[in-house]
Structure of Acyl-CoA dehydrogenase family protein:
Amino acid sequence: MTDYLSTGALPDEYAQLAKTVRDFTRSVVAPVAAEHDANHTFPYEVIAGMAELGLFGLPFPEQYGGQGGDYFALCLALEELAKADQSVAITLEAGVSLGAMPVYRFGNEEQKQEWLPQLTSGKALAAFGLTEPGAGSDAGGTRTTALEDGADWVINGSKQFITNSGTDITKLVTVTAVTGVKDGGKKEISTILVPTSTPGFTAEPAYDKVGWHASDTHPLSFDDVRVPQENLLGERGRGYANFLRILDEGRIAIAALSVGAAQGCVDESVRYAKEREAFGRPIGANQAIAFKIARMEARAHTARTAYYDAAALMLSGKPFKKQASIAKLAASEAAMDNARDATQIFGGYGFMNEYAVARHYRDSKILEIGEGTTEVQLMLIAREAGL
Ligand SMILES: Cc1cc2nc3c(=O)[nH]c(=O)nc-3n(C[C@H](O)[C@H](O)[C@H](O)COP(=O)(O)OP(=O)(O)OC[C@H]3O[C@@H](n4cnc5c(N)ncnc54)[C@H](O)[C@@H]3O)c2cc1C
């Protein structure tokens, strides 16, 4: 990837990937999105199709079963999927960026060999267990504990709002837990791999969410969950710092997903504005509607350039924290604003759940909350600006 990419001039391999995922989205994802949304069902058959396309292995080397691509490739796939179905896109985002990536970034060779081939093939999913009832934006407020007992860790506590944590193919949850006290009295937080088959681990009943109905989200409880000390992921006491790194890059992925949602709203609105007639002409012939759509297109495009920029910095090894937060902020707001405008353009139909824009309206709100709320992004950007 070059240092800066114009959105209209993707190099061939990226353009080809985007087209493949776009075709898959149109033929496989879109036709069943409303049904899974209405029934709150996890789309196993769609996920299996994505696995077959190699999407779960996109940014990982071939030696671990990956496609040998990069993080930008993952972002392009997320953007395409989210145009039609944010639930399917977040399943990929959480599976790759939050599930497999911590193992790839911080695992030792044995852990990588054990877990990555299953995860990169899409046959198994891993979840990222950071948030707790008392630790969301303030993730350092972790209360879950992991105490050493002989050759094991014994984990007790709970996590909440954890994506992909209770599907039939979920095999692993990486959790942050307090493993001791540092000099100066601060909590020592480490990351531990917990296979979901471990006794004492429970994925509680799924949440009844406003949106993302086909995405899997559960509270988790840990009741004397015993795993070997070898399941420590990365350095002891670096769990919080390592998860923050994962969240920094995850924000670029969420920005890409948000751009897909924002663009999906534009595409639906253009189609509908040409088709729907009122007062004897298409509603798009009114400047009020055309300008609304023009503004929506501008928001999607601006947010896209922001995530392309953050991804380019990340891939070239330069600092990207601020740009990732800017991209996440701009793109999540673009998605929410475009969903609101698209719903307005669809009139009464926009308020009917079966319509894609209505689904985007319900789905997009979480984009301003998950992987760092809007306020957290503003805090990070302000801090980078020296405030
Ligand atoms: C569908 C869904 C999926 C999720 N998936 C995962 C997952 O896979 N793994 C995981 O670990 N977590 C996950 N989360 C959790 C998500 O990341 C948190 O909900 C989010 O970080 C916010 O934390 P909170 O809910 O505790 O809100 P809080 O931190 O309690 O924030 C409440 C409000 O206060 C604001 N606020 C807090 N502190 C400040 C401050 N200092 N200044 C100004 N405003 C402030 C926030 O911005 C927010 O508006 C998921 C959540 C949802 C809803």
